[in-house]
Specification:
Glutaredoxin, alpha/beta, 5-stranded mixed sheet, 6 domains
């Protein structure tokens, strides 16, 4: 029996396992042939027509056989303005195929795709799921022929604990496992892997062994310094720390010489980039080993959970977070604790907490950095939210192509379970909870919480009418809370430091993470207080537009956002303000960029990603795109009228936001007319 059939037979025969079943097939075969669709339908006892409907609904599933090698070129806004389209055209010429298409010998499939979610490394090309960033035409031959090193990050557990251990026992165990010698840390995130961090890690390990150094070599996530990747941190036994940017594999011997002699001068750009931020949620990203729970516990993980379980009621946690004013960071900015309160008070069990880690908006990539960099902080936040809301089951719903995020969250869950932080009677309390990971398969609409629940139930991702709201009747009809990754990252900090601390930041809104990309000198992930301006982010943190060119505008919030003109650079980024921070994606555009092309890219994405359930979104977005492409002057009145229909009559927030970028551009960029 083939591997996929064996794995399929191991799945429970319930419809909710439909996406995992399809993933199982595609992971093994690289695509999903018709006989496999039939096998999935038979095993899960779901009509074959419905299995086909689900498989064709999610963009990551393949129902036709690709070539032996799959080359994908990102054509999202950040990549297309950085040379991605030119790379695609050159690959078409070299391979003799028009994308999307497969060479006549079946050796290579070439495809454009909407976003690699690696925007800080634009332009990005993937070869058999291995991303390569900062690619130019001169690099294509190497990209096509290079093979990335195999990286395995073993989970570092230490001895397993007995059920019902206290937090102090866990902390003592973590301290006993501490490594107090010279330490080298390589930032290994999905961003840095695309520019050689894997090769750096291997070269560093080899060089340390060759020299016989008594030193630890550890991976970490990205600290947000994507522009400086590969990034190497050296921590000396006396605590002195050195940050070495651009640590490519070929530079490792020289960098070690300088580091050991303490001849490394601080890089002014690195220092400036870090000091201009308010790093709270991201404080451990780039420092903690995401595969080592002991390292996370030594740095404070699960202390807030332990304190809550030892003497704080669920209502106390809810009221603390409510008083802090924490709003969801998924784009809608709904009060997080209000959801917990509603679910706890609702009748029915079990209750669910869903962590929405789908992050399917092009240009948005900060949640992946958070999961890759500090997975135990997310898990602790989810546990606190489950405790507050009465949820006994947590589901981490992670984007199907967020491979490193999923791997590190899986390690975190397994380690936490081994240490008695999941399961029955967590930390000898009366709180019991189970956690599982599910993977998405693409689809912008999964950012809408009811569509996400439909996906988990094994259906096409389509929004449900509300009411009832998920806190009353959500997943499988049970009370359900859905929180975004960044939202939950804030919860342990608020629980530990109190509501006044968070409410005292960012004009009462705390901090916010942003992904900077496009035409900025220092692209990456940053964290600042709410109320900061685009000038703070693009010029002071991002280093401004390189090459001395003028800034044309900033895409804020991806396909659901707008292009903000330079005159609004000093407006504070606040929920409900003139410039809304949205989900946290910023793409800077210099004066060479066609605003029409950017708007067309955003509209085209919204058109393709419409789930198709409601007519205003399904038909209206396509019509708006066609009106933009039409000959002659744009009919502003007709566009405004149709935009209003789409905005008001679409069922969910994604359709309602689809016309915003076009309407804002017509207002702020007269040349579009």
């Amino acid at each position: 029996m083939s591997d996929w059939r064996t794995a399929l037979d191991a799945l429970p025969r319930e419809r909710t396992w439909l996406l995992p079943g399809l993933h199982t097939v595609q992971h093994d075969l690289g695509w999903i042939p018709s006989h496999a669709l039939a096998a999935v339908a038979a095993h899960l006892r779901v009509p074959a027509s419905e299995v086909y409907g689900v498989a064709t609904h999610y963009p990551e599933f393949r129902l036709s056989e690709p070539g032996k090698r799959v080359v994908r070129v990102c054509t999202g806004v950040s990549c297309r303005i950085s040379g991605g389209l030119e790379c695609l055209a050159e690959l078409e010429r070299r391979l003799g195929v028009s994308a999307p298409g497969t060479t006549t010998d079946g050796s290579t499939t070439l495809e454009p795709f909407d976003c690699a979610f690696n925007c800080s490394m634009a332009p990005v090309i993937e070869v058999d799921h291995q991303p390569r960033g900062r690619v130019g035409i001169r690099d294509l031959e190497q990209v096509l022929n290079a093979s990335a090193p195999e990286l395995r990050f073993p989970t570092i557990d230490g001895p397993r604990t007995a059920e019902g251990s206290s937090y102090f026992e866990l902390l003592g165990q973590a301290q006993s496992l501490a490594h107090r010698s010279l330490t080298f840390i390589v930032a290994v995130g999905s961003c840095s892997l695309s520019v050689g961090a894997g090769e750096t890690l291997h070269a560093l390990k080899d060089e340390v062994d060759r020299r016989g150094l008594q030193a630890a070599v550890s991976p970490a996530g990205c600290s947000g310094l994507c522009w400086a990747a590969p990034m190497l941190t050296v921590i000396h036994p006396d605590g002195a720390t050195q940050l070495l940017p651009h640590a490519t594999a070929d530079r490792i011997p020289a960098l070690l010489d300088a580091a050991l002699a303490k001849r490394v001068e601080p890089d002014p750009d690195v220092t400036d980039f870090l000091l201009r931020q308010r790093r709270e949620l991201t404080s451990r990203c780039g420092a903690v080993n995401p595969h080592d729970i002991a390292d996370a516990v030594r740095r404070g993980s699960y202390a807030a959970l332990a304190e809550a379980l030892a003497g704080r009621s669920p209502e106390h946690i809810t009221q603390t977070v409510k008083a802090a004013g924490l709003r969801g960071r998924g784009g809608a900015y709904f009060a997080a604790a209000t959801k917990w309160e509603g679910a706890r008070q609702a009748a029915g069990s079990p209750k669910y907490l869903i962590v929405n880690a789908e992050e399917g908006e092009p240009g948005i990539f900060k949640d992946r950095h958070l999961m890759e960099g500090d997975p135990h902080r997310l898990l602790e936040g989810a546990l606190l939210a489950a405790y507050a809301s009465g949820a006994g089951r947590i589901i981490l719903y992670i984007h199907g192509e967020a491979y490193l995020s999923a791997e590190r969250m899986k390690d975190a869950v397994e380690s936490a379970r081994a240490w008695g932080l999941l399961g029955e009677r967590v930390l000898a309390s009366d709180f019991s909870v189970e956690v599982e990971i599910r993977r998405g398969a693409g689809g912008f609409v999964l950012g809408e919480e009811t569509a996400l629940m439909e996906s988990l139930e094994g259906r096409r991702a389509m929004p449900r009418p509300k009411p009832p709201f998920p806190t009353e009747a959500g997943l499988f009809g049970k009370p359900t809370v859905i929180n975004n990754v960044e939202t939950l990252f804030a919860v342990p900090l608020i629980a530990a430091r109190g509501e006044k601390w968070w409410a005292g930041l960012g004009r009462g809104h705390g901090t916010k993470c942003f992904g900077l990309s496009g035409h900025v000198a220092r692209p990456g992930v940053v964290e600042v207080e709410m109320g900061s301006t685009l000038r703070d982010l693009v010029e002071r943190l991002g280093g401004g537009v390189p090459g001395g060119r003028a800034l044309r505008g900033v895409v804020v919030g991806g396909p659901s956002g707008t292009i903000v003109p330079p005159r609004d650079l000093d407006e504070p980024l606040l929920p409900g303000g003139r410039v809304n921070p949205g989900t946290g994606g910023l793409v800077a555009l210099d004066d060479t960029v066609s605003i029409r092309d950017v708007i067309r890219t955003l509209l085209d994405f919204n058109t393709r990603e419409s789930c198709g359930k409601c007519t205003p979104c399904r038909e209206g977005t396509a019509r708006l795109r066609d009106m933009l492409d039409g000959p002659g002057a744009l009919d502003h009145a007709a566009i405004a009228g149709l935009s209003e229909v789409v905005r008001v009559a679409s069922l969910c927030g994604l359709g309602q936001a689809a016309p915003l970028s076009l309407m804002a551009a017509l207002r702020d960029y007269p040349e579009l007319a």
